[in-house]
Amino acid sequence: xxxxxxxxxxxxxxxxxxxxxxxxxxHHQWLLLAACFWVIFMFMVASKFITLTFKDxxxxxxxxxxxxxxxxxxxxxxxxxxHLPEELKPTGKMLVEPLVYTQRLELMRNVCREDTLRNLSxxxxxxxxxxxxxxxxxxxxxxxxxxxVGNTQWKKVLIVLNGAFPSIEEIPENVxxxxxxxxxxxxxxxSEAEIQKRLKTYFxxxxxxxxFERLISAFKDKFVHNPRFEPWYRHEIAPGIIRKYxxxxxxxxxxxxxxxxxxxxxPNHRWLDLQFGDHxxxxxxxxxxxAPCEITYSVVGHHETLEDDAPYILREAGIDHLVSYPTIPxxxxxxxxxxxxxxFLGISKRDIRRLYARFEGDFKxxxxxxxxxxxx
Length: 376
Description:
By secondary structure, this protein is mainly α. Helices cover 52% and strands 5% of the residues. It has helices at residues 4-54, 58-66, 99-112, 118-121, 127-132, 151-161, 173-176, 192-201, 211-224, 232-245, 257-265, 270-276, 286-290, 306-316, 337-344, 349-365; strands at 133-136, 141-144, 203-208, 299-302.
């Protein structure tokens, strides 16, 4: 009997040990299971982060830009039906263009078909237009110059692509606009057959911005901060505008924005333009510069979204691996509504309406809204 108690104690102790071991084993199993779930969860979070980080930014840009486009006129197609321009139709591979770029071309073509705007949207493909288009034969690219919309940087891109300089940083500033040294041929320098061949087969693009803001930029650049190598703006063009369009003849100050607006809005401005010659390209309409209703462009970029549009254009032209668009200073491309309203403050509604009438084609072709100060 004395041996029974120790045997029972041993059995009880063994049972507790076994129970503890089982409990400890289950504890480890739960810890291992929890660890596995944690690893899976972290992997899912990391995957989502990587997806968002490397997602094409053009998709978001397209969605935002589309909100600011004017409504596309009804062309008789059923709701939801999308008409793609000829050069953007699927060719057996996935169409990767963000919606906004196709939408811009569609809007432009619809406005080109409006008979009421024909005089404001159509122009002949004259030597003046061909002089504005620069050629890169090596990569089959045509670029139409629209002054005061960041064209200097695009010229630098083409200069590098044409092989005149190895990099954008090595191009001297005084060479960019010197067409005898920069290696940029104009389309007008080719024969008629060669011109037509390039217009039909090359990648073609140009850049636009809000028409009124572009005019303000031109006025500031040429009459306020006029560079020394362009003295004719202050000494020849400004006096000519003042003599013809200044209402207060006792006013002796230099040219004012009001004088400039009155000159541009005059339906008979062309007689004075002829005296100014090619200098006036800085405030000629996009229609007169690039003939968007006569030439089938591949892409129309907007200055306001250039951060997205520049990489897109390089990619679509197939040159993004060869050259990059120069860094854009923060905020320089954003539309400045306050600045525009400030410049037009105090100018008569009549003069502003006449100015808008001249540039209405530019506003409508490229989806820019009519200024609010003209709607009151």
